[in-house]
Structure formats: structure tokens, C-alpha cells
Design brief:
405 residues, alpha/beta
């Protein structure tokens, strides 16, 4: 059954590619829109990525959500796999993937991406293709307001915070964006049963350090924090860094060995990059968020709860809007006494609750429909009014390796 909000067309369906050329967590920020549009005959939807892991997760999510027809396409070939093994990363180098996929991607009417590097495809010959940006995350740091966003033809925004800042910085133009809400929320659900991880019911701390070497609390505080909680019996601790912190497989394996003894403790759970670390299950389970600059704080605060922030890089943050989220809880300059600080943050949450509610309302727009439905509606309308002349040929895509399944 089609979606009533989608405009039926008598012409050939538009060809859309949802292209994932970064770490696997970005699937959650664009795939919900692909699933919605897959149910409309006005579009043919392909999901393209350069790793089997990306495609396996995308296929699982689409099946669970009852998606319409979607082709899951592997790009790049085995030389990309070899390059990935050589570099040790969980994903291949972005530029190599773009070079490998540029001919395939040139056959689409529009390409939807949650990252910005793929805009280089315009320099590689895709000058007529429309590029759609979904963003990935809705945080406060300047990196989320990259000047390259201005090069997109259409941008999907989570809420008023992004709209105001992007307009003020000249990144979006009226008529070339839509506020749709946060589509990732449509693919996640509460995981409230802490017994799945811990044998004893205690308040659960989620430690979520960022990957940036210059901003993360991990280099100067991370292991001290884990060891202090290991010696304390008041809390359960989930250690789930941003997936990019240990994206390198060799680095991740070395850290897992280093932390193996701590990970065996019944009240300590360490996850350096599984599916569980990206699907918000830990966010839903947590009683307190402990972190630094990750935009995941806003996913956690969708249900306001206690927070505790770590200034491991000695930032002068009070008047810096890139640290707006640090006004939602106490900020520590040292990890010393972290368990006591966590207990105090929980006890004093009421002092920050009003600010959290205001921040969430400013960050995530709420509508009657799910965010992915609103995003699909806005994108369909944009594509309909901006549709170029149909190409003379609708030849097949001979260069794509169609993934099995």
C-alpha cells in the first residue's frame, strides 16, 4: 500500500541512491527515509555501501520495518576490501570508495548522504546529480555546521536549532531545506531491562567518550574512570565510546585486551563498537550520561535524565555554543572521585531538568507524524518540483555488484 502523502507520477520513477561512505552508525540517519520512500512507486530506491557489514545491517533494519522494494548494492569490488585490510579500518578510505563508485553513482537522479565528503563526486563528473543531506546527529559542535553543507541541493534538519544556526551561517537557503525531526528515533526502541547486561539492579552509568583526540576525555581520563567504577559497588557501568574512537580494528583489539580483566567484572560492560553501541539501547538503559562532546547526549536527553560532563581538554566552554549541552549537568575538570560525582549529579538533577527540556525542544522538532515520514514527504516534494528533464536512456547499472539476498 502506498503512502497517501506521496504524489503519484505518470513519468518514469526517479532513481534515488542512499549512499553510505562512512562508519556504520550513519545508516540510522538516512535509512529511515529510504524505507519510507521505498513504498512509493514514484521512486526506485537503492542502498549502496562499500562493506558487507553496512549492507547486512541495512537489510536487517529494512526487513524489520516492512520496507518496500530496495536494492542493496555493494560498490568498489575486492580491491576495496584489500585496501581496508591494509589500513586496518572498519570502513575503507572515503576517497577510494568515491573513485570506485563514481560511474555507478552517476546513473541516479539524486544521491542521499548523511556525510559531506561525498560532495567530491561533483568534481568527479556528477555535476547534474542532486545531492541531499540528512546530517548525522544534532549536536552543538561547529563540525556539525560544516561550510560544505551549503553545497547540497536540499538539507533535512532535526529542528529549529539547526535551522537557525545554518541560516545565520549561510549554509541553507529558504526552499532548499525542511525541518523533519530526528529519523533515527524511528529505528530505535527502549531497552529498559538492565538485567540483560548486569546481574544486579543498580543505577547504570553510560560512559560515552568522543573520538576526537583534542576533545575526548578518553586519553586523559578514560581508564581512570573505568577503574574507579570497578572498585565501587553503587553503580553498573557501560563503556560505549563513539564508534570512531576504535574504528581501527588493530587498535580496538589491543584496547579490548588491555581492558579484558575489567570487562569480566559483573557490573562493568565494555563495548568498543558492536551494533549495540550504535542502536541507542545503551542510551535507553542509562540512569546517567557521562561524556564530553558527542552529539549522542541529545539522543539520551530525548528523555531528560541526569548528566555529567568531562572537560579533559581544559576548554573555556561557558560562552561557547559548541558546548551548549554542558549546561545540562555538572562539568568536571578531573576524573578524581567520579563515582561520588555521579551520585551527586543524580541527586541534583532537578536543577538542570528545565534546561534539558528547553534544549531538547530546540533541537528536535516534534510533529504528528514520525520523523522519517515527514522527511520522506519533504524530500518527495522537493524532488518533484526540481525534477530535471528525464534522461534519454534509462539503461541498467552494469557496474554495480548486486549484493546477495
Amino acid at each position: 500500500m502506498g503512502r497517501p502523502w506521496l504524489v503519484r507520477r505518470e513519468t518514469e520513477p526517479q532513481r534515488l541512491c542512499f549512499f553510505f561512505n562512512a562508519q556504520i552508525h550513519q545508516l540510522f540517519h538516512a535509512l529511515p527515509v529510504a524505507i519510507e520512500l521505498s513504498r512509493d512507486a514514484g521512486f526506485t530506491i537503492d542502498v549502496m555501501a562499500a562493506t558487507d557489514d553496512h549492507l547486512a545491517l541495512a537489510r536487517d533494519i529494512a526487513a524489520a520495518r516492512g520496507a518496500g522494494p530496495i536494492r542493496f548494492l555493494r560498490c568498489g569490488g575486492r580491491w576495496i576490501d584489500a585496501l581496508t585490510r591494509l589500513t586496518g579500518g572498519g570502513t575503507p578510505p572515503k576517497l577510494a570508495v568515491l573513485l570506485a563508485a563514481r560511474r555507478q553513482l552517476g546513473r541516479y537522479d539524486a544521491i542521499v548522504v548523511p556525510e559531506r565528503t561525498s560532495l567530491l563526486l561533483r568534481r568527479l563528473g556528477l555535476s547534474q546529480t542532486r545531492f541531499i543531506h540528512t546530517c548525522h546527529g544534532a549536536g552543538d559542535r561547529a563540525v556539525g555546521y560544516d561550510r560544505r553543507i551549503a553545497q547540497f541541493d536540499f538539507v533535512l534538519l532535526a529542528g529549529e536549532k539547526q535551522r537557525q544556526r545554518m541560516l545565520s551561517e549561510g549554509l541553507i537557503r529558504e526552499g532548499q531545506y525542511a525541518i523533519a525531526g530526528y529519523s533515527k528515533f524511528d529505528l530505535t526502541r527502549p531497552y529498559g531491562d538492565r538485567q540483560r547486561l548486569f546481574p544486579q539492579e543498580r543505577p547504570t552509568i553510560l560512559y560515552n567518550p568522543h573520538f576526537s583526540a583534542s576533545l575526548s576525555s578518553w586519553p586523559t581520563m578514560g581508564e581512570s574512570i573505568i577503574r574507579q567504577f570497578a572498585r565501587d559497588d553503587r553503580f553498573n557501568l557501560i563503556v560505549a565510546p563513539h564508534i570512531r574512537l576504535f574504528d581501527n580494528r588493530r587498535k580496538r583489539a589491543a584496547m579490548e585486551r588491555r581492558l579484558a580483566e575489567l570487562a569480566q567484572l559483573p557490573h562493568i560492560h565494555i563495548d568498543l563498537g558492536s551494533r549495540a553501541s550504535i542502536d541507542m539501547r545503551y542510551v535507553h538503559m542509562a540512569s546517567l550520561y557521562l561524556g564530553d562532546v558527542s552529539s549522542q547526549i541529545y539522543e539520551y536527553l530525548a528523555r531528560p535524565r541526569p548528566c555529567l560532563f568531562l572537560n579533559g581538554h581544559r576548554a573555556d566552554w561557558q560562552e561557547d555554543r559548541s558546548y551548549g549541552h554542558w549546561h545540562y549537568g555538572p562539568v568536571l575538570e578531573s576524573p578524581d572521585g567520579i563515582a561520588n560525582a555521579a551520585e551527586q549529579a543524580i541527586a541534583r538533577h532537578a536543577a538542570y531538568e528545565a534546561a534539558q527540556h528547553r534544549g531538547i525542544a530546540h533541537t528536535f522538532d516534534q510533529g504528528a507524524d514520525r520523523a522519517s515520514v515527514r522527511a520522506a514527504r519533504a524530500l518527495a516534494h522537493y524532488l518533484a518540483r526540481s525534477r530535471p528533464m528525464m534522461r534519454a536512456s534509462s539503461e541498467a547499472l552494469p557496474y554495480l555488484e548486486l549484493a546477495n539476498g
